[in-house]
Design a protein that fits this description.
The protein has 763 residues and is of the alpha+beta class. It has 14 helices and 36 strands. The protein folds into four domains: 128 residues, Jelly Rolls (Sandwich), CATH 2.60.120.260; 113 residues, Jelly Rolls (Sandwich); 258 residues, Alpha/alpha barrel (Glycosyltransferase), CATH 1.50.10.10; 109 residues, Maltose phosphorylase, domain 3 (Sandwich). Strands 9, 10, 13, 14, 15, 16, 19, 20, 21 and 22 form a ten-stranded mixed beta sheet that branches. Strands 23, 28, 29, 30, 31, 32, 33, 34, 35 and 36 form a ten-stranded mixed beta sheet that branches.
Length: 763
């Protein structure tokens, strides 16, 4: 450059993965760019402000390319998922434009073209998302990305024709490092085999510091658990090796840190060292899509605090450009059913507006020509498609609807509407009698419910809702959402059509799957929770169905038997019908199966299966066993809604108006937390002290809230130092037998009421 630089921007993307360097320094702090999309339809580009990285004179742009999701091995579906099969290519491709504005106002553009040079014999010998990365430090090329380097032996690059896919700016937060974790211990179960315990099931890679002699081969294998002998447990990984290999340079201290892979792990097995290491040798580098935290939770039960942290970690660990099901084995797909049930918890925990908006576009890209939504998105270019499973495909409506409810963003409904309508029309056309049995794809049902549990200590009774009833329930539910979308978008004809269709499906569901005694097909916890929550039962049978749901709990010895979809619905329905004490019993139970059972086994994330590990019986179903899977972590939605009391108003999106209804119970004597809504921070703090319920709530500016205060004497509820009904900004709405209901405007309020609190110490 001969002129002074006023501003300089780089726009870059790749088919594969890339890291961009300017004059020897990495541009930005993002990882695994350009992230995962359907590369046959669109690819994201990233923008970098590189003004301060350029200088007068010679400047050098350097790029490292890797396989990533575009080329690499992933998925458990045989040859379809081998390297190069996902999108039909073995060629990494890169595209760049740099725009420089000089101090004289001149625009200079630099493009990636045939004048660039390439070199393939560097230190990174291979890099695969599932298999791992191999680095030979002896082959490092010092200064390759800096001015003055002589590129002897480098050859002209190949220029590819325009692939004809959309280039779109990245809208979701980049994947970034979120935390560095030091091991809590290191053991040696076999001579020369060292196991580092990070202390937290995490996702990322390891940074290794070593001064071993030249040519030493150090192997790092990653896993979530140890077996009974203290060795690394990796059978559940299937084809994902999760293995990094580092060959030392022998030039003093070496630092090994991968660039183009990631692993799910708590334990790292290191072999090849010539001497025993200490914990300072290794650091766990955790990274995730960097969505801003929006929620917090803590209470008097430290085990529930651990549970909430486990849920949050599981969300982070499965948030890398898309919401994945698991981060460790040969899968890591954007499974739609998992995201559907967890989406509200995810939104409470983090600002998911941009992340889900991007993923909803992936959902549309994965939709088949006839209207079927895929089981996961993105959906690679495989010969054996996974399409239209009930409860999975429905995420194509439920997730954008959740975004609208929480953020008030009608644009996502507008963008999704045509795809959602095509999906409902497909299911209707295939099932004119309105019982969804045709076009169900793999039809997973209420996944991993009590029917799948194998334990001598668990009742052997059917726990699964029949799949035709499950599918039809979702058909009605999603059709109802589509009708509401149409109304909001001003499409009154479609609103009438799909409202009538939803009512018709509901009537068929009642006729086919519900008896006059309120028994729902399957007669189990899941069936009642789904039918009640989806509004599928007539008013005359709802209370009977609730009694049957309670009986189903008794049939399982007071233990949970629900699967991915029905677990959070069971907890919500128990509370909605006045059985919050029962829900607390389930939440605080240590008996198998339960959330705290897994914590008793040392879990730091949420298990995929209730019976992932059973005391005395070891690991279950190693072919499908993840210890980092957020679906059952959807219970955090209940913790926000019931313990903290934070609830959206279904009629007014975006928390412009909301409901605060804390319900103390179980062993809890206090709870505190917040949700940073799109309109501002909502604070909830309560404690029970000397038979008083003391509740502090903050309502953001330009919003209002309806507050429910539990009390044995509702007429005596106070706010501040006066009777609540007379307090400024407080309006009494209703007094009932056990609560007072008030409407408040923005501000911070301090309510007190008298309450006889029966602490439950039975867990």
């Amino acid at each position: 450059m001969d002129n002074e630089i006023e501003r300089a921007f780089v726009y870059a993307t790749a088919l594969g993965l890339y890291e961009l360097y300017i004059n020897g320094n990495k541009a930005g702090n993002r990882i695994l760019a350009p992230e995962w999309t359907d590369y046959t339809k669109r690819v994201q580009y990233q923008t970098y402000d590189v003004t301060d990285m350029l200088k007068t004179g010679e400047n050098v742009i350097g790029v490292i390319l890797a396989d990533g999701w575009y080329i690499g091995t992933f998925g458990q579906w045989g040859d379809d998922a081998l390297r190069g099969k996902n999108y039909g290519s073995l060629d990494r491709k890169f595209l760049l434009r740099m725009d420089i504005i000089t101090d004289e106002g001149k625009l200079i553009s630099v493009l990636s073209d045939e004048t660039w040079k390439g070199f393939s014999d560097g230190p990174i010998r291979s890099a695969d998302m599932f298999l791992g990365e191999i680095v030979d430090a002896r082959k490092a090329v010092p200064g390759w990305d800096q001015p003055g380097f002589t590129e002897s032996g480098w050859t002209a690059v190949e220029v590819y024709p325009d692939p004809g896919i959309d280039l779109v700016a990245q809208m979701n937060e980049p994947i970034r490092i979120i935390e560095n974790l030091k091991p809590v211990s290191v053991t040696e179960p076999d001579p020369g085999v060292f196991i580092f315990n990070i202390g937290q099931n995490m996702v990322g890679w390891c940074r290794l510091l070593t001064d071993e002699p030249e040519g030493t081969i150090i192997t790092l294998r990653h896993g979530e658990m140890l077996d009974e002998e203290g060795r690394l447990y990796h059978e559940n990984l299937r084809r994902a090796k999760q293995e990094d290999i580092f060959i030392t340079s022998g030039k003093g201290s070496d630092t090994f840190e991968p660039r183009f892979t990631y692993h799910g792990f708590q334990y790292v097995e290191v072999t090849g060292l010539t001497r025993k290491p200490d914990t300072d040798m290794l650091t766990g580098i955790a990274f995730s899509s960097d969505a801003e935290p929006s929620g917090s939770f803590e209470c008097s039960n430290t085990e529930l605090n651990r549970l909430w942290k486990n849920i949050l970690w599981t969300q982070r660990d499965n948030q890398h450009s898309i919401p994945t099901d698991c981060p460790q084995r040969d899968e890591r797909m954007g499974w739609m059913g998992d995201a559907l049930v967890f989406s509200q918890t995810a939104i409470f925990n983090m600002n998911m507006a941009a992340f889900y908006t991007k993923w909803c576009r992936d959902i549309r890209d994965a939709q088949s020509d006839d209207g079927r939504f895929a089981d996961f998105a993105p959906h690679p270019n495989w010969d054996k498609p996974h399409l239209n499973a009930p409860g999975w495909a429905d995420a194509g409506l439920v997730v954008p609807w959740r975004v609208y409810q929480n953020y008030g963003d009608i644009n996502i409904l507008r963008d999704q509407y045509t795809a959602a309508k095509r999906f409902i029309d497909y299911v209707h056309n295939e099932n004119p009698d309105l019982i969804w049995i045709e076009g169900t794809g793999n039809n997973y049902g209420d996944w991993l419910n009590g029917d799948r549990i194998k334990s001598e200590d668990y009742p052997e009774k059917g726990a699964e809702m029949p799949k035709d009833a499950f599918a039809t329930a979702y058909f009605a539910y999603s059709t109802g959402i589509l009708a509401q979308m149409a109304k909001l978008l001003g499409n009154e004809p479609d609103h009438r059509i799909y409202s009538a269709l939803a009512d018709s499906i509901r009537n068929v569901f009642i006729t086919e799957f519900v008896t006059e005694e309120g028994i729902v097909a399957g007669d189990n916890q899941a069936a009642y929770a789904i039918a009640l929550d989806f509004g599928l039962l007539p008013d005359t049978l709802r209370s009977r169905a609730v009694r049957n749901m309670l009986r189903a709990l008794e049939d399982y010895d007071g233990r949970i038997s629900t699967g991915f979809h029905s677990t959070i619905l069971l907890m919500k329905e128990l509370t909605d019908w006045g059985y919050t004490t029962v829900a607390y019993d389930l939440l605080e139970s240590h008996r198998f199966p339960s959330w705290l059972y897994s914590i008793d086994q040392g879990a730091t994330t949420i298990w995929e299966r209730w019976d992932a590990y059973v005391k005395g019986r070891g690991f279950q179903d190693i072919g499908m066993n993840s210890f980092n899977h957020y679906s059952f972590g959807s219970v955090a939605e209940w913790m926000y809604r019931t313990i903290l009391g934070i609830n959206p108003d279904k009629q007014i999106p975006g928390f412009k108006k909301f409901i605060m209804k804390p319900e103390p119970g179980g062993s809890l004597t206090w709870a505190a937390g917040e949700y940073n809504s799109i309109h501002g921070k909502i604070l909830s703090e309560w404690k029970i002290e000397n038979d008083q319920f003391i509740f502090t709530v903050s309502v953001p500016v330009n919003t209002s809230a309806v507050i429910h205060i539990p009390s044995d004497f509702p007429e005596s509820i106070t706010e501040g130092d006066m009777e609540a009904a007379n307090s400024p900004g407080v309006k009494l709405l209703e007094i009932s037998e056990n609560e007072g209901i008030f409407e408040v405007q923005s501000g911070t309020y301090h309510f007190k009421s008298e309450i006889q609190f029966q602490q439950n110490n039975e867990m």
